[in-house]
Amino acid sequence: MKMRILPLLVCSGALAITATVQGQGNSQTEYLDAQKEPPMLGIHWARGFQPNARAAEEAKDAKAALGTRRSPNMTNHGGVIMPQANTTAIFWGTSWGSYSGDKITGIDSWYQGFSNSNYAKTSDEYTGTNGQVGPVVNHSGHLIDTSASSGGGSTSTILSEVCKVIKNNPDPSGNGYYAVYTDTPRGNAGYCAWHSAGTCSNGVRLQFAYFFKLDGDAGCDPQDTTTGHSQGLAAIANVSGHELSEARTDPASPGAWYDSQGAENGDKCAWTFNVPSVTFSNGTVWKIQGEWSNAAYTAGTGYPNNSGQKGCVDGH
Q1: Domains in the chain, please, with CATH?
Q2: pTM recorded for the entire structure
Q3: What is the pLDDT of residues 81-104, one digit of tens each?
Q4: Please, what's the b/e burial string for 163-192 (b: 16 or more CB within 10 A of its CB; e: otherwise)?
Q5: Which residues contact 98 (CB under 8 A, 6 or more apart)?
Q6: How far is Cα 284 from Cα 277, in angstroms, rounded to an integer?
């Protein structure tokens, strides 16, 4: 969901890169303080949560549309897309240093299998000023920061964490995507995850995303009973599909692909599942929401979202 009002490999065999990061230089803090807070994009709302905030431009658009029936399809707003995604997972929080469950290895496998999967190809129809969305994901593995994590209410805080961990050296292509998985529970926040974009001190655009710890969180649980993954892994895997698909098709403000209400392709199919599981290119299986396809809606070949609009596809 586009929100201007801020709330509150082809490398499937890549080895994981693991590091423990301590400290942060004043120069990076000062640099980020001088930047405007990046907007939260692609907010994955918890089940049943109905946000009442709209960006000024979206509210104006909706007002102009009164009395007019609009197509539910997304339109191109003239921004860039991600022709490919160069991904790194960042696990942030004190508990990750001694973690022995399936989330770290599972998330690495998720990104590796996403690349060239039929699920990734559900977003390939979209183009931007810099080309066409492609299904390739180059996953470099994961980094671990065992300092205390924070909630997701401040995008600049999460951007600062990314810049610290990657040492202010994002992927130079502008296609870097850094997914920050914290051990902070969601609590009373109305959302499970979001994505955004910004720069570190070298000025290269990067995409980043934030994920709460969703263990035992009914509001963000896909209710996976078939894949064998832990509930916590299943929950962050599902919202990872939402955020990465949106970052690829609408990575940065003012944006590329979203509909008249500001909904991106993941928003439009949130909490809708066509099949019990989807198989990725590395053979792993995941319970994962579909993504909106303009082409499928126009052809009448998609499955319905929660509004009954048949434009969702999952590549199964």
Answers
A1: 26-46+73-288 (3.40.390)
A2: 0.86
A3: 999 999 999 999 999 999 999 999
A4: bbbbebebbeebbbbbbbbbbbebeebebb
A5: none
A6: 10
